[in-house]
Write a structure and sequence with these properties.
This protein is α+β, with helices and mostly antiparallel strands and about 425 residues long. Helix content is about 60%, strand content about 15%. The chain is built from 14 helices and eight strands. Strands 1, 2, 3, 4, 5, 6, 7 and 8 form an eight-stranded mixed sheet that branches. The protein is rod-shaped and about 120 Å long.
Length: about 425
């Protein structure tokens, strides 16, 4: 029996509140059903009290209210038209207390039962809003005035058979019950609003947290100015830069190393190396472009974050080389780098719409890549433009000419850190055969 009742109540609950309802709609429906139950209970309780006290009058009005209220609820469960159900219930709240008063007698003999009609504008204010409640409150005032006129012109000399002490008791009951229902409705309304607000605040917090993670992820893929533009622009992003310094750093004999070590060791090793390179990129205010296999590509001068970006790239190259030579976990593998740096114009932009990347193109990129591939182990080769910009800040060996297929010879220099007590040294550079 209990299982069947629980199943039936569950089915009724599903009819009352739909899965597609918003939080506010669920709250409004719950409140109206709650108010409907309170009013029905109050009507039956008042009847019982009157009859227990031996006060006899027509029960047509309260029973008619119960019948109509139940009928509107059944109609709502059948067609799920909440607007019709709400209008019917609010209309009952407004008119039935006045009709009840007129059936008993005057405002005094009915113990101010018409006060219950105030639930109509209050209910509309809760269910729909302050503006929608104005017509209902106006109707309540008009009905009160009409009831007062009836009392003034028709009630003199009319005997309702209700003792004054009973009238006093019911005045207190009506005011107490009405106040209780209004308080319960507003209490439930406020608590539910607070709960919904807490849910909204929590969702906003989670949304802000997810947005922060998304922003961080996007900034791990793109430079910040490009990320901001990508969020606002729907078309392709491509920019020309007149002066950018590009660096490629490759691990020497990485193909052989990948054949000798298990995959997880290779991944762990690359992660350690490139994580340090990422740190250096942040340290010198540069932009990591991408990694391809064992190659790490970085550029300076794309975002305007650093004025001396060529120097920053050179400093990063030397520090990256020193890291490979001195880091304990890498010394056993004897890992070395060959690095190429070139300075000049590039085109930069975002490629694709899915799994997109920010990349740079141009002859400057090609030269940096070629210098990296031609450099001996632990050498940092730079082109002429980079040398001219840095020759007063670092030591260089060279110049030397590289034979580039399909182009004229490529002049390069080998970058070295400048000792404090020495001047610039220019010596022939060794190239990888």
């Amino acid at each position: 029996m209990a299982t069947a009742l629980s199943r039936w109540l569950g089915m009724v609950g599903q009819r009352v509140i739909s899965e597609t309802d918003t939080a506010d709609q669920r709250l409004n429906k719950t409140l109206l059903i709650f108010a409907c139950g309170l009013m029905s209970f109050a009507a039956m309780l008042w009847l019982a009290i009157y009859w227990a006290m031996g006060i006899k009058f027509s029960v047509t009005v309260p029973f008619s209210y119960l019948a109509i209220s139940t009928a509107t609820l059944i109609f709502y469960l059948w067609n799920r038209n909440f607007e019709v159900f709400r209008f019917a219930q609010v209309s009952l709240y407004l008119f039935v207390p006045f009709i009840m008063q007129w059936s008993i007698g005057s405002y005094v003999t009915s113990s101010g039962v018409m006060l219950w009609a105030l639930l109509a504008p209050i209910g509309v204010m809760i269910f729909q809003g302050a503006r929608e409640s104005i017509p209902w409150f106006f109707a309540y005032i008009v009905m009160t005035a009409v009831s007062g006129a009836f009392d003034y012109y028709l009630s003199y000399g009319r005997q309702a058979g209700v003792p004054l002490n009973t009238i006093g008791v019911f005045f207190a009951l009506n005011f107490a019950a009405m106040s209780t229902i209004v308080y319960l409705l507003f209490n439930y309304f406020v608590r539910e609003k607070e709960r919904l607000k807490q849910q909204v605040d929590e969702r906003n917090r989670l949304l802000s947290e997810e947005q922060r993670k998304s922003e961080a992820l996007l900034l791990n893929i793109l430079p910040q100015p490009i990320a901001e533009r990508l969020k606002q622009e729907s078309g392709a992003i491509a920019d020309g830069h007149d002066d950018v310094t590009v660096m490629f750093a490759d691990i020497v004999d990485f193909t052989r190393l990948a054949e000798e070590l298990p995959p997880r060791h290779i991944i762990r090793l690359l992660n350690a190396v490139f994580s340090e390179f990422d740190r250096l990129t942040e340290k010198y205010g540069l932009e990591k472009i991408k990694t391809v296999g064992d190659a790490y590509m970085v550029a300076g001068g794309l975002t305007g974050n650093s004025l001396d970006y060529t120097n920053a790239v050179a400093q990063m190259a030397l520090e990256a080389r020193a890291y490979m030579a001195t880091h304990t976990s890498l010394q056993s593998r004897r890992l070395e780098l060959h690095i190429g740096i070139s300075t000049g114009p590039v085109v930069a932009g975002v490629i694709g719409v899915k799994r997109f990347i920010y990349d740079v193109w141009g002859n400057t990129v090609n030269i940096a890549s070629r210098l990296a591939s031609e450099a001996m182990a632990n050498n940092v080769l730079v082109d002429v433009a980079t040398y001219q910009r840095l020759h007063s800040q670092f030591d260089f060996e060279g110049p030397e000419a590289l034979a580039v297929k399909g182009k004229r010879q490529l002049i390069c220099y080998r970058l070295e850190p400048r000792p404090v007590t020495q001047s610039t040294v220019v010596r022939p550079v060794q190239l990888r055969s």
